[in-house]
Amino acid sequence: MGDAASLSVFVLVDHGLLPKHRLLDIGCGVLRGGIPLIEYLDAGHYVGVEARTEVLKEARKELAKSGLEGKRPLLVNEADPTRVRLDTPIDVAWPSWCSFTCPTRSSMDT
After folding, report:
1. Which DSSP state fits 74?
2. Was domain 18-102 assigned CATH 3.50.50.60?
3. What would the DSSP string read from start to end of 29-45?
4. 3-state class of 25 per DSSP?
5. Is the dihedral of CA 52, 85, 69, 37 positive or negative?
6. What is the pLDDT of residues 61-95, one digit of tens each?
7. Contact 49, 26 (CB under 8 A)
8. How many CA atoms lie within 13 A of 16 on its CB side?
């Protein structure tokens, strides 16, 4: 993935994200940005929250296709991320949907 998904990981790592950190991915969608994060993080350290049930079903398919189910990411169907209750604290909250919906500098220059 040489797109915004990879860029998200690069930005987060550049700002101090380590594999041991626990990350909450708000609006994880079909895991376009989540797959690289799941690959990078330690097992069980990725939590994806998505409001749309059908999109989360597709995310689970993408996870299976990627062969990363063994990394034990938690995918939660919830419209309000503040209502998600976890057993362990989160180190980083990341709105990955911003990576894919916000215009890039090059698209703003045209």
Report:
1. E
2. no
3. TTSTTHHHHHHHSPTT-
4. strand
5. positive
6. 999 999 999 999 999 999 998 899 999 999 999 98
7. yes
8. 3
